[in-house]
Design a protein that fits this description.
Radius of gyration: 28 Å
Largest sheet: none
Shape: rod-shaped
Number of helices: 9
Number of domains: 1
Order of helices and strands: HHHHHHHHH
């Protein structure tokens, strides 16, 4: 009897609707865990590359030296890409300020738009996949609840057909209902925790990127010597915060 009420018996008791619910929950679980693992690894790599770039960036003597560095190696993190966008935009504005519509309004306006677009593109990139994780976290409990209701419905059918609510008649359907509830929670809880972790990490990451963009704007528009150098080369303004669960 104990063997008859195992997981194999649970699968045998399921109909097409129950199997569809189970497949949907398993698909959400696999997809969310794939995104959780890949985004965690990607965030760790991005954090280390950003820290190395910022340390290297503030050690240069001028933006010209940074530009030469970009010609030798392509940017490999969001901070480096933003710096390259800013330097290229400033150079492009000086050359085509009177012949290019995008550069109309002066270097400052053109640089502001360029840096803002760079931050927006990074925000779009880091939010990739969060919709699916949020969907798994919010929808999985209800999908499991539907499976629970369907299992209880089967139990009531068994009672109606047998005329008596004995354990052997209702154990399978009730077990199916309980397992569906557990599966729904097992899918939802990690997804919700991961979503909150990634949202916090992205908020901190983008705030640090905006702080770096501000420093970069001052360096390009005011100059990289004198007062501008003293006011912008602040480790706290452009250093990646390590206190973010290892995800920044």
């Amino acid at each position: 009897m104990e063997q008859g009420l195992g997981f194999s018996h649970f699968l045998e008791q399921m109909d097409g609707v129950g199997i569809s619910v189970l497949i949907l929950l398993l698909s959400l679980s696999v997809a969310s865990w794939y995104l959780i693992i890949t985004k965690t690894v990607a965030n760790l790599i991005a954090k280390r590359r950003a820290e190395a770039f910022l340390k290297h960036f503030w050690s240069f003597d001028s933006l010209d030296a940074v530009n030469v560095e970009f010609k030798n190696s392509a940017p490999n993190n969001a901070f480096a890409e933003l710096a390259k966008l800013g330097i290229d935009a400033a150079a492009d504005s000086k050359i085509h300020s009177s012949h290019k519509l995008a550069a109309a309004g002066g270097t400052s306006e053109f640089l502001t738009r360029t840096l803002r677009n760079g931050i927006d593109q990074e925000a779009t990139r880091v939010e990739n996949g969060l919709t699916l994780i949020a969907t798994a976290g919010s929808a999985a409990p209800y999908i499991g609840l539907f499976g629970t209701v369907w299992g209880i419905y089967h139990a009531l059918i068994q009672i109606g057909l047998s005329g008596q609510g004995t354990l052997d008649k209702v154990a399978g359907p009730v077990g199916e209902a309980l397992i569906m509830t557990a599966l729904g929670l097992a899918v939802a809880i990690p997804a919700v925790l991961a979503y909150n972790m990634f949202v916090r990490r992205n908020r901190i990451w983008l705030a640090q990127l905006e702080a770096f963009a501000h420093d970069l704007f001052i360096l390009i528009t005011v100059g990289d010597t004198g007062d501008a150098e003293g006011s912008t080369q602040k480790p706290t303004a452009a250093t990646v915060n390590p206190d973010n669960g290892g995800q920044s």
